[in-house]
Design brief:
Distance between the termini: 13 Å
Number of domains: 2
Structural class: alpha+beta
Strand content: 25-35%
CATH architecture of the largest domain: Sandwich
CATH superfamily of the largest domain: F-spondin domain
Radius of gyration: 26 Å
Number of strands: 10
CATH topology of the largest domain: Immunoglobulin-like
CATH class of the largest domain: Mainly Beta
Helix content: 10-25%
Number of helices: 4
Length: 268
């Protein structure tokens, strides 16, 4: 019998390791994403932020190229419906979501997402800049922001955006009477621009003196290096389910007992 206990020891320890590894193999963590409005008071605000954790394959837009429907749904409408749909179609296993609500001067918003760091180590985001006809912020390259290394460790804790990183989708001509977030404007009166995506924040001065949907009078006040927006990341591990933890502890205890019996038998 002692010999059998000794023989069972590797199996018990192996089973324990398998159970614990099975829980951890998914490499799942809760990621809390916090958005901070950094632009000067009475300057730009932001529509809802659309985001995704992914494998690096979803490319929302490209600098110097014609904007497609997904990014236009962010840059013009702000709702990002087509953006999220395209994201999920490109990679069904991606974690795609939205932090709803406008981010206005002084605002801070956050939300938590369940992320598999092994399969979705990259992060992509997009948000309409308001007021505007078709301005937005977001990353051009899908692999620009790698959040997690192969071991699931967080590589970056924040992403900051300056005024020089504001994109113009080139899809709608500048027109204060058709811009979003301006009192009295009618978005349906848009005029196609037929341009390409490129950086542009100086055009925002065309809204100076106009009343925004939030009630403040707009004043651009942005320089190229003015901070406007920040994303922060914090992670918390997914706890091992209690039944599995208790089972693993029991198997470890059995392994200890088996080892002691095997040692006693050997001494005899």
């Amino acid at each position: 019998m002692p010999v059998r206990s000794h023989a069972c020891l590797p199996a018990l320890l192996g089973t324990t390791a398998f159970l614990l590894a099975g829980v951890a193999s998914a490499a799942q963590v809760n990621v809390t994403v916090t958005l901070r409005h950094l632009a000067p008071a009475n300057s730009v605000s932001f529509a809802a932020t659309h985001l995704g954790f992914h494998n690096g394959t979803f490319d929302a837009f490209n600098n110097g190229q014609v904007a497609t429907a997904p990014i236009i749904s962010v840059a013009e409408a702000g709702n990002g419906n087509a953006w999220r749909q395209a994201f999920s179609m490109t990679q069904p296993s991606a974690t795609v979501g939205t932090i709803a609500g406008q981010l206005r001067p002084g605002d801070v918003r956050s939300s938590t997402f369940l992320v598999d760091t092994a399969t979705n180590p990259f992060f992509t985001f997009a948000s309409m800049v308001i007021p505007s006809n078709d301005f937005f912020i977001g990353n051009d390259s899908p692999t620009q922001y790698r959040l997690f290394d192969d071991a699931g460790n967080l590589l970056i804790t924040s992403i900051s955006q300056t005024a020089s990183q504001i994109w113009d989708a080139g899809s709608e001509a500048f027109d204060t009477a058709a811009a979003a977030f301006i009192v009295g404007s009618v978005g349906a009166n848009r005029t196609p621009q037929n341009g390409v995506v490129g950086f542009n924040f100086s055009e925002l001065s065309g809204f100076n003196g106009l009343v925004t949907g939030a009630g403040y009078t707009f004043q651009n006040a942005l320089l190229a290096d003015t901070g406007i927006y920040q994303i922060e990341f914090a992670t918390t591990p997914i706890p091992i389910p209690a039944p599995i933890g208790l089972l693993a502890a029991g198997l470890v205890a059995m392994g200890v007992v088996a080892r002691r019996r095997a040692g006693t038998a050997g001494a005899r």
